[in-house]
Amino acid sequence: MALSSLPEPPAGSESSTSDDPGPVVEWSGLPEPVRGRLAEVGAEAVGALPKVDVPQQLRAVARFAPAKRARLGGSAIIAGLRDVPGFRTAVVQWCRDHKPAALDLGGDDPVAVAAAAVLLGEETAVHYLELVSRRASDSSLRAERDAAVARLRKVEAELDRVKTELSSSTGAADQVRAEGEVELERLRKRLREQGAKLRAAKDAAVAAEAAVEVVRAEASAEVAALTEQRDRDRERAENERARAARAEADAEIARQSAREARQADEVRLALLVDTLDGAVTGLRRELALGGGGPRPADLVRGATAAQGVVGRVEDPAALERLLALPAVHVVVDGYNVTKTGYAELSLADQRDRLIRQLASLAARTSAEVTLVFDGAGVVAVPVTAPRGVRVLFSDPGVLADDVIKALVTAEPEGRPVVVVTSDRAVADAVRRRGAHPVPSAVLLARLGRV
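The structure corresponding to this sequence follows.
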Protein backbone atom coordinates (compact mmCIF):
# COMPACT_ATOMS: atom_id res chain seq x y z
CA MET A 1 0.00 0.00 0.00
CA ALA A 2 1.34 3.48 -0.86
CA LEU A 3 2.26 5.73 2.06
CA SER A 4 0.93 9.33 2.24
CA SER A 5 2.24 12.19 4.36
CA LEU A 6 0.98 15.53 5.53
CA PRO A 7 2.53 18.67 3.90
CA GLU A 8 5.51 19.94 5.83
CA PRO A 9 4.83 23.03 7.98
CA PRO A 10 6.35 26.36 6.88
CA ALA A 11 9.82 27.15 8.15
CA GLY A 12 9.91 28.40 11.71
CA SER A 13 6.55 26.78 12.64
CA GLU A 14 5.84 23.51 14.52
CA SER A 15 4.53 20.50 12.65
CA SER A 16 1.53 20.40 14.97
CA THR A 17 0.24 23.71 13.41
CA SER A 18 -0.14 22.24 9.94
CA ASP A 19 -3.50 22.88 8.31
CA ASP A 20 -3.59 19.51 6.53
CA PRO A 21 -1.68 16.87 8.49
CA GLY A 22 -1.45 13.66 6.52
CA PRO A 23 -0.90 10.05 7.48
CA VAL A 24 2.65 8.87 7.43
CA VAL A 25 1.85 5.24 8.21
CA GLU A 26 -0.32 2.41 6.88
CA TRP A 27 -3.64 3.04 8.59
CA SER A 28 -4.77 -0.52 7.88
CA GLY A 29 -1.81 -1.82 9.92
CA LEU A 30 -2.39 0.30 13.03
CA PRO A 31 -2.15 -1.66 16.29
CA GLU A 32 -5.52 -2.25 17.87
CA PRO A 33 -4.81 -0.08 20.98
CA VAL A 34 -3.86 2.90 18.70
CA ARG A 35 -7.00 2.36 16.59
CA GLY A 36 -9.08 2.40 19.75
CA ARG A 37 -7.40 5.59 20.96
CA LEU A 38 -7.96 7.36 17.60
CA ALA A 39 -11.59 6.20 17.60
CA GLU A 40 -12.12 7.67 21.08
CA VAL A 41 -10.55 11.04 20.17
CA GLY A 42 -12.48 11.19 16.88
CA ALA A 43 -15.72 10.22 18.65
CA GLU A 44 -15.34 13.09 21.13
CA ALA A 45 -14.50 15.57 18.37
CA VAL A 46 -17.18 14.55 15.85
CA GLY A 47 -19.96 15.38 18.27
CA ALA A 48 -18.62 18.93 18.81
CA LEU A 49 -17.49 19.88 15.28
CA PRO A 50 -19.66 22.03 13.03
CA LYS A 51 -21.72 20.05 10.59
CA VAL A 52 -19.72 21.41 7.66
CA ASP A 53 -16.51 19.84 9.03
CA VAL A 54 -18.11 16.40 9.48
CA PRO A 55 -17.97 14.13 6.39
CA GLN A 56 -21.26 12.85 5.03
CA GLN A 57 -20.50 9.25 6.09
CA LEU A 58 -19.89 10.34 9.72
CA ARG A 59 -22.97 12.52 10.26
CA ALA A 60 -25.01 9.52 11.35
CA VAL A 61 -22.24 8.59 13.81
CA ALA A 62 -22.26 12.17 15.19
CA ARG A 63 -25.88 11.64 16.20
CA PHE A 64 -24.98 8.56 18.35
CA ALA A 65 -24.83 8.90 22.09
CA PRO A 66 -21.27 9.87 23.19
CA ALA A 67 -20.80 6.52 24.96
CA LYS A 68 -21.69 4.57 21.77
CA ARG A 69 -19.79 6.55 19.08
CA ALA A 70 -16.38 4.91 19.55
CA ARG A 71 -17.86 1.42 19.99
CA LEU A 72 -20.39 1.48 17.14
CA GLY A 73 -18.79 3.97 14.73
CA GLY A 74 -15.08 3.40 15.43
CA SER A 75 -14.35 1.90 11.98
CA ALA A 76 -16.12 4.78 10.19
CA ILE A 77 -14.25 7.40 12.30
CA ILE A 78 -10.86 5.77 11.52
CA ALA A 79 -11.75 5.67 7.81
CA GLY A 80 -12.72 9.41 7.95
CA LEU A 81 -9.45 10.36 9.64
CA ARG A 82 -7.55 8.38 7.00
CA ASP A 83 -9.42 9.43 3.88
CA VAL A 84 -10.68 12.98 4.61
CA PRO A 85 -7.76 15.40 5.32
CA GLY A 86 -10.18 18.24 6.17
CA PHE A 87 -11.91 16.16 8.82
CA ARG A 88 -8.54 15.08 10.24
CA THR A 89 -7.41 18.74 10.34
CA ALA A 90 -10.66 19.73 12.08
CA VAL A 91 -10.16 16.99 14.68
CA VAL A 92 -6.55 18.14 15.30
CA GLN A 93 -7.71 21.73 15.71
CA TRP A 94 -10.51 20.66 18.10
CA CYS A 95 -7.98 18.75 20.19
CA ARG A 96 -5.70 21.81 20.35
CA ASP A 97 -8.64 23.89 21.56
CA HIS A 98 -10.42 21.46 23.89
CA LYS A 99 -8.15 18.49 24.61
CA PRO A 100 -4.48 19.39 24.10
CA ALA A 101 -3.37 16.33 26.08
CA ALA A 102 -4.53 14.16 23.17
CA LEU A 103 -1.75 15.74 21.02
CA ASP A 104 0.98 15.54 23.66
CA LEU A 105 4.02 13.76 22.18
CA GLY A 106 5.90 13.75 25.45
CA GLY A 107 3.49 11.66 27.53
CA ASP A 108 4.22 8.35 29.32
CA ASP A 109 1.55 6.35 27.55
CA PRO A 110 3.03 4.94 24.28
CA VAL A 111 -0.47 4.33 22.86
CA ALA A 112 -1.56 7.96 23.42
CA VAL A 113 1.72 9.30 22.01
CA ALA A 114 1.48 7.01 18.92
CA ALA A 115 -2.13 8.13 18.31
CA ALA A 116 -1.09 11.82 18.62
CA ALA A 117 1.81 11.28 16.21
CA VAL A 118 -0.53 9.64 13.69
CA LEU A 119 -3.02 12.53 13.93
CA LEU A 120 -0.27 15.14 13.57
CA GLY A 121 1.46 13.26 10.73
CA GLU A 122 4.73 13.07 12.60
CA GLU A 123 7.50 11.10 10.90
CA THR A 124 8.24 9.52 14.28
CA ALA A 125 4.77 7.98 14.29
CA VAL A 126 6.14 4.84 12.67
CA HIS A 127 8.58 4.37 15.55
CA TYR A 128 5.86 4.93 18.13
CA LEU A 129 3.67 2.39 16.37
CA GLU A 130 6.51 -0.13 16.33
CA LEU A 131 6.99 0.46 20.06
CA VAL A 132 3.29 -0.14 20.71
CA SER A 133 3.35 -3.24 18.50
CA ARG A 134 6.39 -4.62 20.32
CA ARG A 135 4.79 -3.99 23.68
CA ALA A 136 1.59 -5.65 22.52
CA SER A 137 3.63 -8.56 21.18
CA ASP A 138 5.56 -8.75 24.46
CA SER A 139 2.30 -8.70 26.38
CA SER A 140 0.93 -11.47 24.16
CA LEU A 141 4.10 -13.51 24.65
CA ARG A 142 3.89 -13.00 28.41
CA ALA A 143 0.26 -14.10 28.34
CA GLU A 144 1.21 -17.19 26.32
CA ARG A 145 4.08 -17.86 28.71
CA ASP A 146 1.76 -17.55 31.71
CA ALA A 147 -0.76 -19.85 30.01
CA ALA A 148 2.01 -22.37 29.28
CA VAL A 149 3.20 -22.21 32.89
CA ALA A 150 -0.39 -22.72 34.07
CA ARG A 151 -0.79 -25.72 31.74
CA LEU A 152 2.53 -27.12 32.99
CA ARG A 153 1.39 -26.79 36.59
CA LYS A 154 -1.91 -28.45 35.70
CA VAL A 155 -0.07 -31.32 34.00
CA GLU A 156 2.23 -31.68 37.02
CA ALA A 157 -0.79 -31.77 39.33
CA GLU A 158 -2.44 -34.37 37.08
CA LEU A 159 0.81 -36.40 37.11
CA ASP A 160 0.88 -36.28 40.92
CA ARG A 161 -2.75 -37.39 41.02
CA VAL A 162 -2.04 -40.29 38.63
CA LYS A 163 0.94 -41.32 40.74
CA THR A 164 -1.26 -41.25 43.85
CA GLU A 165 -3.97 -43.32 42.12
CA LEU A 166 -1.35 -45.79 40.88
CA SER A 167 -0.01 -46.19 44.41
CA SER A 168 -3.56 -46.66 45.72
CA SER A 169 -4.35 -49.20 42.96
CA THR A 170 -1.19 -51.16 43.78
CA GLY A 171 -2.21 -51.31 47.43
CA ALA A 172 -5.72 -52.39 46.49
CA ALA A 173 -4.32 -55.13 44.23
CA ASP A 174 -2.16 -56.44 47.09
CA GLN A 175 -5.17 -56.43 49.39
CA VAL A 176 -7.32 -58.29 46.84
CA ARG A 177 -4.53 -60.86 46.36
CA ALA A 178 -4.36 -61.42 50.12
CA GLU A 179 -8.15 -61.74 50.32
CA GLY A 180 -8.04 -64.22 47.43
CA GLU A 181 -5.54 -66.38 49.30
CA VAL A 182 -7.74 -66.31 52.39
CA GLU A 183 -10.79 -67.27 50.28
CA LEU A 184 -8.80 -70.10 48.65
CA GLU A 185 -7.89 -71.48 52.06
CA ARG A 186 -11.54 -71.23 53.13
CA LEU A 187 -12.64 -73.16 50.05
CA ARG A 188 -10.05 -75.84 50.72
CA LYS A 189 -11.34 -76.18 54.26
CA ARG A 190 -14.90 -76.42 52.95
CA LEU A 191 -13.78 -79.12 50.52
CA ARG A 192 -12.35 -81.14 53.36
CA GLU A 193 -15.59 -80.72 55.32
CA GLN A 194 -17.63 -81.85 52.29
CA GLY A 195 -15.40 -84.93 52.03
CA ALA A 196 -16.11 -85.75 55.64
CA LYS A 197 -19.86 -85.29 55.07
CA LEU A 198 -19.69 -87.54 52.01
CA ARG A 199 -18.01 -90.29 53.99
CA ALA A 200 -20.63 -89.93 56.71
CA ALA A 201 -23.42 -90.13 54.09
CA LYS A 202 -21.88 -93.26 52.61
CA ASP A 203 -21.72 -94.82 56.07
CA ALA A 204 -25.38 -93.89 56.62
CA ALA A 205 -26.32 -95.47 53.29
CA VAL A 206 -24.51 -98.69 54.22
CA ALA A 207 -26.28 -98.73 57.58
CA ALA A 208 -29.65 -98.16 55.88
CA GLU A 209 -29.02 -101.02 53.47
CA ALA A 210 -28.10 -103.27 56.38
CA ALA A 211 -31.32 -102.26 58.18
CA VAL A 212 -33.34 -103.07 55.05
CA GLU A 213 -31.70 -106.47 54.82
CA VAL A 214 -32.53 -107.14 58.47
CA VAL A 215 -36.18 -106.20 57.88
CA ARG A 216 -36.30 -108.41 54.81
CA ALA A 217 -34.76 -111.30 56.70
CA GLU A 218 -37.20 -110.88 59.57
CA ALA A 219 -40.14 -110.72 57.16
CA SER A 220 -38.92 -113.82 55.32
CA ALA A 221 -38.44 -115.69 58.58
CA GLU A 222 -41.89 -114.70 59.74
CA VAL A 223 -43.44 -115.78 56.45
CA ALA A 224 -41.56 -119.07 56.62
CA ALA A 225 -42.70 -119.64 60.17
CA LEU A 226 -46.31 -118.92 59.29
CA THR A 227 -46.09 -121.19 56.25
CA GLU A 228 -44.67 -123.98 58.38
CA GLN A 229 -47.38 -123.44 60.92
CA ARG A 230 -49.96 -123.61 58.17
CA ASP A 231 -48.52 -126.92 56.92
CA ARG A 232 -48.67 -128.37 60.40
CA ASP A 233 -52.23 -127.18 60.80
CA ARG A 234 -53.25 -128.99 57.63
CA GLU A 235 -52.11 -132.22 59.17
CA ARG A 236 -54.28 -131.66 62.16
CA ALA A 237 -57.72 -132.89 62.52
CA GLU A 238 -60.77 -131.43 60.84
CA ASN A 239 -61.82 -129.70 64.02
CA GLU A 240 -58.69 -127.50 63.83
CA ARG A 241 -59.31 -126.22 60.29
CA ALA A 242 -61.02 -123.12 61.57
CA ARG A 243 -57.99 -122.21 63.64
CA ALA A 244 -55.75 -122.91 60.64
CA ALA A 245 -57.87 -120.54 58.55
CA ARG A 246 -57.53 -117.84 61.17
CA ALA A 247 -53.78 -118.42 61.30
CA GLU A 248 -53.61 -118.10 57.50
CA ALA A 249 -55.51 -114.85 57.69
CA ASP A 250 -53.12 -113.61 60.38
CA ALA A 251 -50.19 -114.66 58.24
CA GLU A 252 -51.57 -112.77 55.24
CA ILE A 253 -51.99 -109.63 57.35
CA ALA A 254 -48.41 -109.98 58.55
CA ARG A 255 -47.17 -110.42 54.98
CA GLN A 256 -49.06 -107.34 53.87
CA SER A 257 -47.60 -105.30 56.74
CA ALA A 258 -44.12 -106.55 55.85
CA ARG A 259 -44.60 -105.62 52.20
CA GLU A 260 -45.80 -102.15 53.13
CA ALA A 261 -42.92 -101.67 55.54
CA ARG A 262 -40.48 -102.89 52.91
CA GLN A 263 -41.95 -100.54 50.29
CA ALA A 264 -41.75 -97.56 52.68
CA ASP A 265 -38.14 -98.41 53.51
CA GLU A 266 -37.30 -98.80 49.83
CA VAL A 267 -38.86 -95.38 49.03
CA ARG A 268 -36.88 -93.72 51.81
CA LEU A 269 -33.74 -95.52 50.72
CA ALA A 270 -34.24 -94.54 47.06
CA LEU A 271 -34.76 -90.88 48.05
CA LEU A 272 -31.65 -90.99 50.23
CA VAL A 273 -29.62 -92.61 47.44
CA ASP A 274 -30.80 -89.94 44.94
CA THR A 275 -29.83 -87.22 47.40
CA LEU A 276 -26.44 -88.83 47.98
CA ASP A 277 -25.95 -89.13 44.23
CA GLY A 278 -26.65 -85.39 43.86
CA ALA A 279 -24.22 -84.62 46.68
CA VAL A 280 -21.55 -86.78 45.05
CA THR A 281 -22.11 -85.07 41.68
CA GLY A 282 -21.87 -81.61 43.28
CA LEU A 283 -18.72 -82.62 45.14
CA ARG A 284 -17.12 -83.94 41.96
CA ARG A 285 -17.96 -80.68 40.22
CA GLU A 286 -16.50 -78.70 43.10
CA LEU A 287 -13.34 -80.86 43.11
CA ALA A 288 -12.95 -80.26 39.38
CA LEU A 289 -13.24 -76.51 39.89
CA GLY A 290 -10.82 -76.47 42.80
CA GLY A 291 -8.08 -78.42 40.99
CA GLY A 292 -4.56 -77.90 42.31
CA GLY A 293 -4.75 -74.11 42.45
CA PRO A 294 -6.92 -71.07 41.74
CA ARG A 295 -9.03 -71.02 38.58
CA PRO A 296 -9.59 -67.89 36.45
CA ALA A 297 -13.04 -67.42 38.03
CA ASP A 298 -11.40 -67.37 41.47
CA LEU A 299 -9.29 -64.34 40.46
CA VAL A 300 -12.07 -62.11 39.11
CA ARG A 301 -12.11 -58.79 40.94
CA GLY A 302 -15.15 -56.86 42.15
CA ALA A 303 -17.20 -59.80 43.50
CA THR A 304 -17.21 -61.87 46.67
CA ALA A 305 -18.35 -65.48 46.96
CA ALA A 306 -21.41 -66.23 49.13
CA GLN A 307 -20.61 -67.21 52.69
CA GLY A 308 -22.70 -70.35 52.97
CA VAL A 309 -26.13 -68.66 52.85
CA VAL A 310 -28.79 -69.83 50.40
CA GLY A 311 -29.42 -66.91 48.04
CA ARG A 312 -32.61 -65.71 46.44
CA VAL A 313 -33.07 -66.76 42.81
CA GLU A 314 -33.80 -63.70 40.68
CA ASP A 315 -33.84 -64.93 37.05
CA PRO A 316 -35.12 -67.95 35.01
CA ALA A 317 -31.55 -69.05 34.20
CA ALA A 318 -30.76 -69.56 37.89
CA LEU A 319 -34.06 -71.43 38.33
CA GLU A 320 -33.13 -73.62 35.34
CA ARG A 321 -29.89 -74.60 37.07
CA LEU A 322 -31.78 -75.55 40.24
CA LEU A 323 -34.28 -77.64 38.26
CA ALA A 324 -31.35 -79.55 36.74
CA LEU A 325 -30.20 -80.76 40.18
CA PRO A 326 -30.80 -84.48 40.82
CA ALA A 327 -33.81 -85.38 42.98
CA VAL A 328 -34.86 -81.74 43.27
CA HIS A 329 -38.22 -81.09 44.95
CA VAL A 330 -40.15 -77.99 43.79
CA VAL A 331 -42.78 -76.70 46.24
CA VAL A 332 -45.09 -74.03 44.75
CA ASP A 333 -47.23 -71.53 46.69
CA GLY A 334 -50.23 -71.88 44.34
CA TYR A 335 -52.33 -68.76 44.81
CA ASN A 336 -49.23 -66.59 45.27
CA VAL A 337 -48.13 -67.58 41.76
CA THR A 338 -51.55 -67.42 40.06
CA LYS A 339 -52.48 -64.03 41.54
CA THR A 340 -49.12 -62.71 40.36
CA GLY A 341 -49.53 -64.03 36.82
CA TYR A 342 -53.27 -64.12 35.99
CA ALA A 343 -55.33 -62.71 38.84
CA GLU A 344 -58.13 -61.81 36.43
CA LEU A 345 -59.22 -65.49 36.18
CA SER A 346 -61.44 -67.24 38.68
CA LEU A 347 -59.72 -69.30 41.40
CA ALA A 348 -60.71 -72.57 39.72
CA ASP A 349 -59.33 -71.42 36.35
CA GLN A 350 -56.19 -70.17 38.05
CA ARG A 351 -55.63 -73.60 39.63
CA ASP A 352 -56.28 -75.47 36.37
CA ARG A 353 -53.93 -73.28 34.35
CA LEU A 354 -51.07 -73.52 36.86
CA ILE A 355 -51.48 -77.31 37.24
CA ARG A 356 -51.24 -77.79 33.46
CA GLN A 357 -48.14 -75.62 33.22
CA LEU A 358 -46.42 -77.38 36.14
CA ALA A 359 -47.24 -80.79 34.65
CA SER A 360 -45.43 -79.78 31.46
CA LEU A 361 -42.50 -78.44 33.51
CA ALA A 362 -42.28 -81.68 35.51
CA ALA A 363 -42.30 -83.76 32.31
CA ARG A 364 -39.42 -81.74 30.88
CA THR A 365 -37.23 -81.55 34.01
CA SER A 366 -38.10 -84.80 35.91
CA ALA A 367 -38.37 -82.68 39.07
CA GLU A 368 -40.76 -83.66 41.88
CA VAL A 369 -43.41 -80.92 41.99
CA THR A 370 -45.75 -80.25 44.92
CA LEU A 371 -48.40 -77.55 44.46
CA VAL A 372 -49.99 -76.16 47.65
CA PHE A 373 -53.25 -74.17 47.72
CA ASP A 374 -55.03 -72.61 50.66
CA GLY A 375 -58.03 -74.86 51.34
CA ALA A 376 -60.18 -72.09 52.83
CA GLY A 377 -63.20 -71.38 50.62
CA VAL A 378 -62.58 -74.29 48.23
CA VAL A 379 -65.93 -75.96 47.50
CA ALA A 380 -64.75 -78.87 45.37
CA VAL A 381 -61.24 -80.25 45.72
CA PRO A 382 -59.97 -81.97 42.53
CA VAL A 383 -59.65 -85.72 43.08
CA THR A 384 -56.95 -86.26 40.45
CA ALA A 385 -53.92 -84.29 39.30
CA PRO A 386 -51.82 -84.51 36.13
CA ARG A 387 -48.90 -86.90 36.13
CA GLY A 388 -45.84 -85.53 37.92
CA VAL A 389 -47.66 -82.89 40.03
CA ARG A 390 -48.79 -83.43 43.62
CA VAL A 391 -51.67 -81.04 44.47
CA LEU A 392 -52.34 -80.32 48.17
CA PHE A 393 -55.02 -78.20 49.86
CA SER A 394 -54.48 -77.02 53.42
CA ASP A 395 -56.92 -78.38 56.03
CA PRO A 396 -59.47 -76.05 57.68
CA GLY A 397 -57.69 -73.72 60.09
CA VAL A 398 -54.28 -74.43 58.52
CA LEU A 399 -52.53 -71.92 56.26
CA ALA A 400 -50.89 -72.96 53.02
CA ASP A 401 -47.74 -71.19 54.25
CA ASP A 402 -47.52 -73.58 57.20
CA VAL A 403 -47.97 -76.59 54.89
CA ILE A 404 -45.08 -75.33 52.72
CA LYS A 405 -42.82 -74.94 55.76
CA ALA A 406 -43.76 -78.44 56.94
CA LEU A 407 -42.94 -79.89 53.49
CA VAL A 408 -39.48 -78.29 53.58
CA THR A 409 -38.86 -79.51 57.13
CA ALA A 410 -39.88 -83.06 56.21
CA GLU A 411 -37.19 -83.34 53.52
CA PRO A 412 -33.90 -85.05 54.46
CA GLU A 413 -30.90 -82.80 54.94
CA GLY A 414 -28.94 -82.40 51.74
CA ARG A 415 -31.82 -82.83 49.29
CA PRO A 416 -32.25 -79.76 47.05
CA VAL A 417 -35.61 -78.08 47.68
CA VAL A 418 -36.96 -75.09 45.69
CA VAL A 419 -39.86 -73.04 47.13
CA VAL A 420 -41.67 -70.71 44.71
CA THR A 421 -43.31 -67.79 46.55
CA SER A 422 -43.14 -64.01 46.70
CA ASP A 423 -44.17 -63.99 50.38
CA ARG A 424 -41.07 -62.61 52.13
CA ALA A 425 -41.87 -64.27 55.46
CA VAL A 426 -42.25 -67.70 53.85
CA ALA A 427 -39.11 -67.17 51.75
CA ASP A 428 -37.06 -66.23 54.81
CA ALA A 429 -38.39 -69.20 56.77
CA VAL A 430 -37.60 -71.82 54.10
CA ARG A 431 -34.21 -70.24 53.40
CA ARG A 432 -33.28 -70.81 57.06
CA ARG A 433 -34.23 -74.46 56.55
CA GLY A 434 -31.84 -74.76 53.59
CA ALA A 435 -34.36 -74.39 50.73
CA HIS A 436 -33.95 -72.09 47.72
CA PRO A 437 -36.69 -69.40 47.58
CA VAL A 438 -37.73 -68.32 44.07
CA PRO A 439 -40.03 -65.32 43.37
CA SER A 440 -43.31 -66.16 41.63
CA ALA A 441 -42.44 -63.90 38.68
CA VAL A 442 -39.31 -65.97 37.95
CA LEU A 443 -41.33 -69.22 37.77
CA LEU A 444 -43.94 -67.54 35.55
CA ALA A 445 -41.16 -66.39 33.20
CA ARG A 446 -39.86 -69.97 33.06
CA LEU A 447 -43.34 -71.41 32.51
CA GLY A 448 -43.80 -68.98 29.61
CA ARG A 449 -41.10 -70.91 27.70
CA VAL A 450 -42.61 -74.35 28.37
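The first helix runs from residue 32 to 46.
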